[in-house]
Amino acid sequence: MNGRIWAYVGTAVGGVASLAANIAHCYVPPAGAPAGWSPEFGAVVSATFWPVALFIAVEILARTVWPAGGWWKLARFGGLLPVALVAAVVSYRHLSGLITYYGEDRLTAIAGPAAVDGLMIMAAAALLASGKHREPAPAGPPAAEPAQPAPALAAVPFTERPRAVNGAIPSGVVR
After folding, report:
1. CA proximity to 113, closest of 96, 101, 89
2. Rounded Cα distance, 68 and 143, in Å
3. CA pair distance 91, 22, nearest whole angstrom
4. Which residue(s) pair with 168 in the sheet?
5. Cβ distance 66 to 137 under 8 Å?
6. Each residue of 62-90: pLDDT tens digit?
7. I want to staple 83 with a disulfide (CB 3.0 to 4.6 A). Which of 42, 57, 90, 97 is the partner?
8. Global confidence as pTM
């Protein structure tokens, strides 16, 4: 398989792991929860938002032909960074809390979620790097097509005198 396919596999595996951890963390009962406690429906639904939002933001970044210019870079990365940072923090905390709840040691709870985030970052970067390399669209309205110069007439060297055709000398030829 080529690198782009592995990047999509990494995105899918990281996304599913992140989704599963975020949802599973919702079912961790808070301290002092009564018997039979269950999470609110909205908490479970909102836990899915962070990885999905990050996936959508990366796809928008990777698949859009952005116009050139500083404002477009600001819009592109200024929009992606908050989504990525919030999704990373929330998902990290959910996975870390889940690992702790399952009884893993502190080091695993701290380092484990970084593997999921690292996989997602690597996969997103690979998708960007392996995408179709297109020139950014020009900023502003499309420019008028430049006028094409008329094709140059090929210089034909005169190497012989005009010949008589059927014994007649062409008009305008001086002997």
Report:
1. 96
2. 14
3. 6
4. 165
5. yes
6. 788 889 899 998 988 898 889 888 888 88
7. 57
8. 0.65
Exposed/middle/buried for residue 41 (C-beta within 10 Å: 0-12, 13-18, 19+): exposed
Q: Is 153 exposed, middle or buried (0-12, 13-18, 19+ CB in 10 A)?
A: exposed
Length of the chain: 175
Token pair listed for 43: 């908490």
CA distance 32 to 123: 40
Per DSSP, the residues of 135-162 read PPBPSSSPPPPPPPPPPPPPPPP--SPP
Task: Name the CA dihedral angle for 71, 74, 79, 83, rounded to a multiple of 10 degrees.
Answer: 180
Q: Do 25 and 94 form a contact (C-beta atoms < 8 A)?
A: yes
Q: Where are the beta strands (DSSP E) in 13-85?
A: none
Q: What is the mean pLDDT of the chain?
A: 80
pLDDT tens by residue, 88-98: 888 899 999 99
Phi, psi of 21 (to 5 degrees): -65, -40
Token pair, residue 10, equals 């990494």
CA distances from residue 14 to 4, 33, 54 in whole angstroms, order as listed: 15, 31, 11
- Which structure tokens are listed for 100? 């702790």
Please give the structure tokens belonging to residue 26: 């919702």
